[in-house]
Amino acid sequence: MTATALVTTGKPAPRKKMTRKKWQTVVWFVALIAITLVVIYPLVWLFASTFKPNSEFGQNQGLIPLEPTLQNYATIMEGIGGVPMWRFFMNSLILAVAAVVGTLFSSSLAAYAFARVKFKGLGIFFSAMIGTLLLPVHVVIIPQYIWFNKLGLVDTFVPLILPKFLATEAFFVFLMVQFIRNLPRDMDEAARIDGAGHGRIFWSVILPLIKPSLITGAIFAFIWTWNDFLAPLLYLNSPENYPLPIALNLYNDQTSTSDYGATVTASFVALIPILLFFIVFQRFLVNGVATQGLKG
Amino acid sequence: MSTTETRRVVTAQGPGRPARPKATPAQRRRTLRETRAGYTFLLPWMIGFLGLTVGPMAYSLYLSFTSYNLFAPPKWVGFENYIRLFTDDPVFVQSATITLVYVVVGTPIKLAAALAVALLLNYRDRGAAFFRSAFYAPSLIGASVSVAIVWRAMFNTDGPVDSALSSVGINLGGWIGNVDLVVPMMILLAVWQFGATMVIFLAGLKQVPKELYEAAEMDGAGALRRFKTVTMPMLSPVVFFNLLLELVGAFQVFASAYIISNGTGGPAGMTNFITLYLYKRGFSDSQMGYASAIGWIVMIVVAVIAVILFRTQKSWVHYSGDDR
Amino acid sequence: MLRTTKFLAATAVTVAGGLALAGCSTGGGAGDGYDPEEEITLNFAFWGNDERAQLYDQAFEAFQEEHPNITINSSFLDFPGFWQKRQTEAAGGGLPDVMQFDYSYLRQYAENGLLLDLEPYLGEEISTDSLSDQILDIGRVADGNFGITTSTNAWGLFSNPKLLETVGVEDFAGGTADDYNQWIIDATKTAQDGGHEVWGASDWTGRIQLFELQQRAKGEDLFTEDGEPNFTEEDLRAFWEQGSEIREEAAFPAAKAEEVFPLGGFDTAQVLSEGTWDNFGAGYLANLGEEYTELTLQAPPVFEEGAQDLYLKPSMLHSVAATTDHPEAAAMLVDFLVNSEESGEIFGTNRGLPASTTALEAAELDELSQQIKDYEESIADRLGDAPPVPVVGYGTLEEKFRQIGQELGYGTITVDAAVEQFFSEMDATLN
Q1: Under an 8 A CB cutoff, do A42 and B150 touch?
Q2: Cross-chain Cβ contact C54/A154 below 8 Å
Q3: How many CB pairs under 8 A join A and B?
Q4: What is the tally of structural domains in chain A?
Q5: Chain A residues with CB within 8 Å of chain C CB
Q6: Does domain B3-10+83-316 have CATH number 1.10.3720.10?
Q7: Are A172 and A68 in a shared domain?
Q8: Are residues A237 and A107 in the same domain?
């Protein structure tokens, strides 16, 4: 029983619904603004503290700096240990973009196999894939490091990028599996009747329909890679290769004096590219999915 | 009864495997084709799985039965690590306890908050973009040292939280120094970073065909009814996904605990969640064998939970793609 | 700075290869002798922050002038990150040629053959004229000398003169542990009565170093040469009992300490007196900010009259990886960083008070550093022989001690339970 073609075009809303809608909208805005204020406050605090001189951090926990200064921004612009700030940004960017490409590529392929192809061993491998979600990463990190080191790939980006192309993060595979499974099979079957094989169905039918999950996946892959700390720490040696999170920590050191001002400022500045990234891409989530095309 | 009313559909266990009595040659050929296709699509994942996951996992299982300090070769000790964990390690007991509290209490709160806000944002698209970004921003700050600086500042004595609560008569003082309030503080940190979960719910909500809502509305269903009969069932795969992942993620909470406590797990071990404890044992104390044992215990617990969840999904999760 | 950047960048290409080579090289990299014509690249790792990185850049430039054929590839991390990195390198093969080293890890790395024995290079590439025997002895463990002490420090008691004045309390005038406890109680009372949120001191029984002092005053180090514990549960219990007097009221509350963490009560001007390693003074002043410009430094409380319980501990050493391809060049670099006048001038007291007399003389000592130098001279009579190189896992025990101290402060654990836990931990760590 397919969904009947209830294509509503215009919305002839009766008069009383319109004023109720307006009132609803106002409440909606108010609620959202209230939540926003609470959620955003810590970030506002962070922003304000980028103008605090270093010494204020122990003593002044309030919002407003007692002695506002731009020194922190000047400090971080100088970079660290002779490596300019933009270099760290570039490293982060390269890693993040590569991660997005690799992740979407490998995860969507694997997800399609799990969700749409009836092959022998599917159940076992699916359980195995879910199983990898459960693995605390620290348990496998040493053996992985030893292996990459033997291949001479330490201090390169390879150990950081290769896993993304091999769908090692089950989160993305699972995410797409759930979305693909949720798609009615009508179009698949229609395409198969037209003689399409799995490859064609994957490319022309499924991929366009799971755009929200692809976008979501892309956003997460980008952001998580941008913020990843442990793997770059282990695999990268030269400061020129450091991505932002490692570089940020270089302002802080327990055994010498720490520069909290520079740390928060660098964090804040690091926040901006990914915030922009998110703002640009999250618009795609609005357009939803073309189930409108799935009529009888 | 409307033709578009959604019904709970009982799906087969596991993704798309129908029961087959006997295979004809044509069917066998089809199976072979399917299998070939399946493995082709699965190839990248397979390489990663075997090379980067299975191998290291097997090695870590082996390590859990050894005493290994990274310098000398591992020394076999049998079940000693496991025995010590359960009989002579009060830190492990404490760690397991606070982790369970964090998971059991924190996960529902975070999911509820994420879903509530996603529903709110789904209400209308105009103007939502700004709020979406605002709610997601906390997740962007990641696991940087600044999170520690900011969050501690929020929960200090006379800090914003303390002041806000005091103004309505609740005088708790600083949370960060109060051993009883540290875990709630960490839960709130997780909830604050609900953006990712919210985004997934939002993507799921967007995938719900508008026609279903309109049809239900035509039938006279109010907002609550529509939520129960359209939204929730259509959203159930995503709910399942988020639930599983949040539970697993909560068990593996590490980065936030590490940076807030500066790697110590303090105060008084109240941020020493199980993965942080594992990490300290492995990397700070160089007891990789013991750490691996902890890791495997965590994995088993999480695996049991996952199995339970998967078993129960038949009764509440509805996959439209499985509709025949 | 730009020149150095290009200089570092130009040689960065060899890093991956260099590490792989270092990992692949077999027997102890016994060089074929040093050839001043041969182009050599050395990998160097240190912990620290941006400030120290800049100092190193300058040092390497100076070294480069003397040895134009040697290029140095340096990398750095914060202290915990540094050791995480080293441990993974140790497991996977490929420690850097030369590195800053920490006393608590020396035994572990040396006993496992990861470090180069520098004994053959002493007097040759590494000049010993300005390093006393006592200093050189520090790095001796496992039948060799595996680390050259770069700077030393001793345990001392800091106090904040301006804060003392503000709250109207006289500084501690020296005395026994009981005297000190009494002073803390009185000081806290006076300060609090005057309306100041200030305490005399933190619970000093939370620091293992003071337990060590108490034991050494009785003539016993914490651990024997072979790494066996040299104290009983009774000793530990008695030590922690001493703190119970002040833990209730007079000591800086654990909750407050947690709030300002990773700073402490002293560097947030809430505590009048604090014991710590003497070279932490600079950090205190920096954290206290512009309001506070000086500190007083005196000897810690006496446990036993006339005992030589204090000692000079290396705050930093330099070591060479056993797998290095260029041992002579590496030794030369160590010599430069430890002994040379240039390094003394460049670093000053950034790495602590220089152990080498030439470096110390060349270093420009600011007021605080001068105070530290004077302090170390003033306690000469109380200085005993250094204890054996810390046992493997000492870092873990130190941290456990600190955590237990914190829990005692919170009252979440009794002294008996604490003793039991510590001994249980020690048992697991040492075996």
Answers
A1: yes
A2: no
A3: 329
A4: 2
A5: 55-56, 58-59, 80-84, 142, 145-146, 149-150, 152-156, 233-234, 237-241, 246, 249-259, 262
A6: yes
A7: no
A8: yes
pLDDT digits (tens, 9 = 90+) for A64-109: 777 788 888 887 777 766 678 788 889 999 999 999 999 999 999 9
pLDDT above 70 coverage of chain B, percent: 91
Whole-angstrom distance, CA of residue A109 vs CA of residue A217: 13
Residue C259 to residue B176, Cβ atoms within 8 A:
yes
Higher pLDDT, B1 or A283: A283
Instruction: Find, in chain A, the residue whose alpha carbon is nearest to that of B41.
Output: A109
**Which strand (E) or helix (H) includes residue C141?**
strand C140-141
C327 cis-preceded (ω within 30 degrees of 0)? no
pLDDT at C429 over 80: yes
Contacts of A233 in chain C (CB under 8 A): 77, 81, 84-85
The structure's pTM equals: 0.81
Band (pLDDT 50/70/90 cuts) for residue C149 is: very high
Q: Is the pLDDT of residue C70 over 80?
A: yes
> Under the phi-then-psi rule, with left for phi > 0, alpha for psi from -120 to 50, and beta for the rest, what region is B127?
left
Is the pLDDT at A285 greater than 60? The verdict is no
Are A95 and A162 found together in one domain? yes
Query: Neighbouring chains of A at 3+ CB pairs within 8 Å?
Result: B, C
Domain boundary among A40, A73, A106: A73
**CA-nearest residue of chain C to A251?**
C49
The distance of A165 to chain C (nearest Cα, Å) reads 22
C248 pLDDT above the threshold of 90: no
Look at residue B129 in the predicted model and tell me its pLDDT: 80
Mean pLDDT of chain B: 84
**Shortest Cα distance, chain A CAs vs residue B127, angstroms:** 9
Q: What gap in Å lies between CA A293 and CA B5, rounded to an integer?
A: 19
Residue C56 in tokens: 């190193």
The answer to whether C403 and B269 are in contact (CB under 8 A) is yes
Q: Are residues A203 and A94 in the same domain?
A: yes
Of A294 and C72, the one with more pLDDT: C72
* Nearest Cβ partner for C88 among A142, A251, A254: A142
ipTM: 0.77
- Residues in chain A with CB shorter than 8 Å from the CB of C79 are 253-255
Asked if the model's pLDDT at residue C296 lies above 60, the reply is: yes
Residue A181 shares a structural domain with residue A68: no
| pLDDT of the residue at C24 | 36
Q: How far is A153 from chain B (nearest CA, A)?
A: 15
A34 and A164 together in one domain: no
Domain boundary among A28, A47, A73: A73
Residues A274, A248, single domain; the answer is yes
CA–CA distance, B186 with C402 (Å, rounded to integer): 23
Judging contacts by C-beta atoms under 8 Å, the chain A residues touching residue C283 are 256-257
Domain residue limits, chain B? 3-10+83-316
One domain, residues A165 and A235 = yes
Q: Does C282 touch chain A (CB under 8 A)?
A: yes
Indicate the pLDDT class of residue C127, thresholds 50, 70 and 90: confident
Question: b or e along A220-251 (b: 16 or more beta carbons within 10 Å of the residue's beta carbon)?
Answer: bbbbbbbbbbbbbbbbbbbbbbbbbbbbbbbb
The answer, yes or no, to whether residue C123 has pLDDT greater than 90, is no
**3 state DSSP class of C291:** coil
Domain extent, residue A256, equals 81-292
**pLDDT at residue number B116:** 92
Q: How many inter-chain contacts (B to C, CB under 8 Å) are there?
A: 74
Q: Do C73 and A257 touch (CB under 8 A)?
A: no
> If you measure CA to CA, which chain A residue comes closest to C315?
A255
Q: Which two tokens stand for residue C150?
A: 């770069």
Closest to C257 in 3D by CA, of B152, B70, B315 = B152
- Report the CATH number that the domain containing residue A204 is assigned in CATH: 1.10.3720.10
Enter the tokens of residue C126.
């590494």
* Cα B18 from Cα A154, distance rounded (Å): 47
Q: Chain C residue with minimal CA distance to A232?
A: C85
Tell me if chain A has a CB within 8 Å of the CB of C415. no
